[in-house]
Amino acid sequence: MPVLLAIVLGALVGAPQATPTRDHLDAMRHLRLGQENMHAEQWDKAEAEFQWAIKLEPPLEMAHYGLGQVYMATKRFPEAVKAYLGCRDAFVSNTARRANNDQEVVHRGGILPTGRTRGTYNAPPWITSSSATSASRR
User: Fold this and answer.
1) Is residue 63 one of the residues assigned to a domain?
2) What is the pTM of this model?
3) Containing H/E element for 63?
4) What's the average pLDDT block by block, 10 residues per block, for the chain (138 residues)?
């Protein structure tokens, strides 16, 4: 029991605590202001806020998405497509980064932040190999 306690405490003490950077906090503030302005249909202000959020934190998915919504509302469709593609790219990048972090934690024998341990992840049906195989046969 003391050995288990030492291992758990060591894992907790050794785990790095992520503190938000000033840019992240500012990006989140701009994101919130962009959303508020968008809901008030103040398109120019919302666009500027979302652009600031993206400038401060490029992988912020919701800022790209909000910018796409502003462009759709103002009927600037080519710009909306670019913003939505930026959202998709940020999502893919963030997902890959999270997966790599999860693999590193599991490799070190830790437990993932969600409480999952190795081998407990269930992929959505559209990602599993059986659905990919059946989709390719259609």
Assistant:
1) yes
2) 0.64
3) helix 61-73
4) 43 54 96 98 98 96 97 98 96 86 67 56 54 46
Domain extent at residue 74: 21-107
Helix axes 77-107, 61-73, angle to 10 degrees: 170
Distance CA 14, CA 11 (A): 5
DSSP code per residue over 93-109: HHHHHHHHHHHHHHHTT
Calculate the alpha carbon distances from 130 to 58, 92, 119, 127, 133 in Å.
Answer: 35, 22, 18, 9, 5
**CB neighbour list of residue 121: distance below 8 Å, 6 or more residues apart:** none
Whether residue 31 lies inside any domain: the answer is yes
Please check whether residue 131 lies inside any domain of the structure. no
Beta carbons within 8 Å of 56's beta carbon, 6+ residues apart: 23, 24, 26, 27, 30
